[in-house]
User: Fold these one by one.
Assistant:
Number 1:
Amino acid sequence: MNSRKLAIEKTIKYVLLCLVVFVLYILQGTPGFLSVFGVKPVFLVPFCINLSMLEDEGYALVVYVVAGLLFELSAGRIVGLYTIPLIIACMVCMIMVKFIFKPNYRNSMVMSFISTFAILAMDFFFSYVLAGHKGIFIIFLKTVLLCSVYSTLFSVLYYKLIVAVQRRFKKYNER
């Protein structure tokens, strides 16, 4: 396969992944979608973590930036509050998979939980603790801990989706 076809396949692959991110953004922003006792899952962070565990290319950074910016748009936060920690978490996961862990379902769930928990805890600190809200323990349990656990449950689905996309573009991955 020549370099032009490889470039086209790579472009199609990452456009497809960006479309998946956009669909997840729409689902994440839909009011009441998969809400259990007022806890809504975060779809974008576990997807990006799974992508970083399965893709070892720097081109996936475009997907992380798109996901981070869409996550900030859905949460109504300042630009960079989610994008920068998401990129850092994805790069750390990519390095850990390269040198320490093997990409599998269990590691995917663990890394998704840790990353989602860290990003949501950082947001909680800036939004609630520094603002001086009362009863922050209950808010922490609901907005950070339960949301992280609930979001992690979807990481197996994302893992299978990314593996299916990789199989489709296997010719590109072999080179």
Number 2:
Amino acid sequence: MKGNLKILIFLFSIILNVVFVGTYATYKFQIITIERKDDNLMKPLFLELDLTPEQLTRFKSERDKFHPHLQALEQEIKRKQIELIEILSIDTPDQRAIENKQKEIQELQALAQDRVIVHLLQASALISPEQRTRFFHLIRKRIEVSISSCPPWTKPLEESRTGESG
């Protein structure tokens, strides 16, 4: 009996690992497909705006100040998300702890969004009206074609079949 249980647990572990690896590979494959379709999606935006040398210097300076702050926030959000998963994984999760962790994550996400908006406004103030129009058009295009952060199995069946992202 004990031996059969160990074999079942071992098989379940292998199946679970195969599912995780398959999901990861599917997700990565979709990203590679999009990158090949439009290499411009991977280029920094400022390279597509025909900036003057002065604009380029100011744009890069603004970007270099912004990115470390955003990366730090992203790491903090990930840390809180992992803490939430830990709370959810226990046998009887504490609903109050779940709600508190959700609130912490939402506050950090709102802070990140606020910082992105301020950054976009600061960056767009450095460029001409024509460049500004192009800048926001490029951002909109990247958002429209970006892959959702949701795993493929959470997308509607039609989107999963066509490879579209939602």
Number 3:
Amino acid sequence: MEDFNGLSLPFRLIELNSGEQLFALECKEIRTLGSKEELSGTFEVIYKCNGMDCHFECDITIGNIYYFYLELDTAYDILFSKNAKAVLNNYNNDRTNIVFEFDDKCRCKAHGTIKNSSDQYRSSIEFTMSAERSEICDALVSIDKFLNELSQVKGDMDFF
């Protein structure tokens, strides 16, 4: 394990575990580019289901995580209102697209397509699964900790 300013890497940002399926997003590495005002990260998707065990890098940035956190926090704050959603993608490209959709019965459906950056985006996984309210809360706490630690290094929350 590596340490970056109080974060033990890899750092798990999201984990959805239905018992039969596991989806997780981890930050594997943080680097400063030039000065500490510029940070970059390497993110990995973990997906396990029916004997499948995928681990690969995906195409997202710290800025993408920041925007997703804001959307997820808003959707959670309005108590899983109908049609609330949060989307994690890389500035509208089709290589990473993870959507958390909430309904008025306190249910969340997570689904998405993530293309593998290790093979020039030729392979991908698609998943759909339910997320428990506690998993959403855990993800918010985890992402908040991640962003706060990075803002300590960077000096602000300007991640885009």
Number 4:
Amino acid sequence: MDKCVLDTSVIVKSIFKPLKSLSDEIYRREMETHKKCRFIIKTIEEVDADIYIPRVCIVETAAVVKKLANKSLAMKISKGVLDSYEAIDEVFLFDTAWTIARDTGCSGFDSYFIALARIKNAVLLTDDGGMHIHAKEIGVDPVLIRDREIKDIEKIILG
């Protein structure tokens, strides 16, 4: 894999462990997903893949981190995301995202991630089941992290 789009779910789940208040089954699944997301971030940076995010990912990351932690960490992490990945402006994605939203009914944020993967012909890495379904619906190559073994993810990344 030489190009990918990272969904906010992968970024956030790579940083934060799941809440221990979750049921045992969901906690185990989410802890495995956390480990996979950490592996993904580390590995795609090591193989020097082109990593894209829509600029809205920075906003979404800030909002989620603020909810999970605090304003200071939200600023630090969202700034780190901006500095670490190629953030594509909305103007380049709008028409495609709008079409995807109209055709699939997916959320506005999701349509931008899917549009970017489509435009860049990149693998979409996500742990959002709905985004995964909508991406497949329009012919984008998505990887739903929770449904993949780490060995499979490694094969996808390393080719």
